[in-house]
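Page 47, continued from p. 46.
Same chain as before, 74 aa.
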Amino acid sequence: MKYYGHLRRHDSIQKRILEGKIDGRRGRGRRRQTWLGNIQETSQMKMCEVCETALDGRRWRTVTAHLGDGMAPS
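Result:
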């Protein structure tokens, strides 16, 4: 989770890869879990909220510090 905050705040190749989309058709079968999906599920925030929060380092640290205790601010 902390690494995601780092990626969002810095312009890098990793950020481009993380936010990129691949052209073409989707494969058959069950959808794979994604790292961003796991972050969204763990933080219990919408993806736009996660992205905005990650840009503010202080606020992101507060969110990641309280993930397991049910006290995560919204």
